């Protein structure tokens, strides 16, 4: 990537995040004895501290790509490198947040957030991190609540806290706001930007919402129909907070929708 491109990353995001290189990645699934191609020759890099959005038609392989980057399964072809090391398995430095909160219903919010630290055997020494993570997402008063006592937005905040407690260098966001009502979604969009600016992690967001991508990210990558290839790339360097009525945002939204074959 050129020095000019590097200079476009907002100063608001400290370069504390992870560098990611997706190198000519292809992937397929086995279905009824045949191979179903999902990704084809995906090749791009993400700089430390960038916030990149992935857009594309439903079912094109965006979520699959996040799973590969998280190390949940290996790609069929090509490779993924994180901070210079090949990705071969999950790691606490790369955290994946799903569309559904996936909280343990029998555990309190505190215990849900503590899951990662407990699995790594460091909860006793780092208990304070759980309280810090809950405070960071605005759930400091709900540590003893259970998932069924939370609204959808609060449950998603708990999921974010569970990811942030591990102090990830890379946060992988698989449509984390997709099932929320519009007002809660607007609030959490602003919260995600705040958390990213404060923590400096690298963020990779899958979304179907072009406007959401423009409000949150520094770069947008548009994928084609399955098997997904990179179809286009856009940068949006406006300072935060961004506004839906910004003429530049509206103009770029129209261009991106056109790339997706949608007439605005």
Structural features, described:
There is one protein chain. The protein is an alpha/beta fold. It folds into 2 domains: 3-93 and 169-259, Rossmann fold (3-Layer(aba) Sandwich); 102-167, no CATH class. The protein has helices at residues 3-7, 62-70, 109-113, 115-119, 127-136, 152-164, 182-199, 210-216, 247-259; strands spanning 20-31, 34-46, 51-55, 77-82, 85-86, 94-97, 170-174, 202-206, 219-223, 230-235. A 6-stranded mixed beta sheet has the order 6-7-8-3-9-10, sandwiched between helices. Strands 2-1-4-5 form a 4-stranded antiparallel beta sheet, covered by helices on one side. A hairpin with a 6-residue loop joins β9 (219-223) and β10. α5 (127-136) packs across α6 and α8 crosses α9 (247-259). The model is unreliable at 1-15 (pLDDT under 50).
Please outline what is shown here.
The protein is an alpha/beta fold. The protein contains 9 helices and 10 strands.
